Amino acid sequence: xxxxxKDSQQWAESVIQNSGRLGMCEMMQELNHFGLGxxxxxxxxxxxxxxxxxxxxGLEAIEKEEFEIFRKLADEMDEKKRSELLAKxxxxxxxxxxxxxxxxxxxxxYKTSPKIDKYYEQLGLFWTRLNFLGADSFPSEAVFxxxxxxxxxxxxxxxVGWAWKHLDFCQALRKKHPDxxxxxxxxxxxxxxxxCGYMAAALDITVEEAVQVLSIVVLNPENKSVHLSxxxxxxxxxxxxxxxxxxxxxxxxxxxxxxxxxLVELQRKYHGDWDRAVNLREDIFRNELRWCFPGEHIYAxxxxxxxxxxxQYVTDIDAAFFDERNGKLxxxxxxxxxxxxxxxxxxxxxxxxxxxxxxxxxxxxxKWLEGQETDTIMQKLGLDRVTKTRISxxxxxxxxxxxxxxxxDTKPDPRAAWGIWPQVLRLLKESxxxxxxxxxxxxxxxxxxxxxxxxxxxPRPDVIGLDFKIxxxxxxxxxxx
Length: 481
Known about the structure:
Radius of gyration: 26 Å
Helix content: 40-55%
Strand content: 15-25%
Largest sheet: 5 strands, mixed
Number of strands: 19
Shape: globular
Number of domains: 3
Oligomer: single chain
């Protein structure tokens, strides 16, 4: 092992900075390819990129901000317990000074104790709840490679706790040896079989099970082309160093994208299991949506409704809610899409699929409604068995789990209200907190709020210009004016 010194640190920082600049250039190429920006050569050594100047720009960024609701809700729910846990951290680091010492002058070695391990497992749990998205991607019992999704999530949580434990052991050692270079202690490698043994003990599973679970969060030669083909891809918690060893990446474990890396690997390795698990999502989404429409006077379908004209299949209604008090009916198409991160290629695929499917769904549902009497609609939806109230108005909703709007010159079909699940949760919470929630008309309320809060009606996010050099080339990035 070679310790980190000033020269090697400067070299590493230079490599990282230039890799980031190259990644930015790749991103500009993708944006240009899919019509989201203009990339031109001003001269032999100067390149200019201008971001999209269409009517509706930055909608993805606006929707992304809605996910802050998950973090805030978790923050509020866990605030007391998390505060109590963090209050003990200083005391825990002081305790850890007894178990840690230098190794080979520059590095770190330590032992642990059941009390320390339990503390950091709890810290890992609260950290993942607060900072990680993707934990709700599948129900706990969904099976991948013979093991439940919950086991993979739990393994990530344990890795997060271990990362915090390592950081705090580094702090404990520097209390005794402040001259030690932190970089030499933070990044560590470990034999993979030893790590699997520790994970098996932590989760009370076999070593073989731990090997399978941990292999899902390792960047290795087999999967590197999948993960590294996208600029700013999801960071891995573990990086294969040799056939026997891995690097335990603090950044990859704590940055919040570990679940997304895990999901990419689950889909890659267990494609059949993934397709079967995807079918379980709709019931979860429909049941969660029921929270927005409480009360015995509102009826909901328990499963998808197949619409037919005569004997010909038209389309499905993923969720239907009928308010008996006012006769209002809400018909939903629920889209639980996988995230596309910073991949413009995946974004384009998701955009085309979403717009094609949802626009066709709106057309077919409206055509079906126009050709049916009210009593027939009630019968086909199964509502005639629970109420005699007639339909006064029908609302259509497109509700995405992760996204529903894309930048461009056109906005979504106005015959439906469009939104995403975090947005619905935010609107519901804000309305309840401000006592403006209309409990007498929840279906109409949701339609109005989604239209009022559409990303297409909000100011475009600020885009900061940037310029940098790579070798002899000068690259200038300018926002659209």
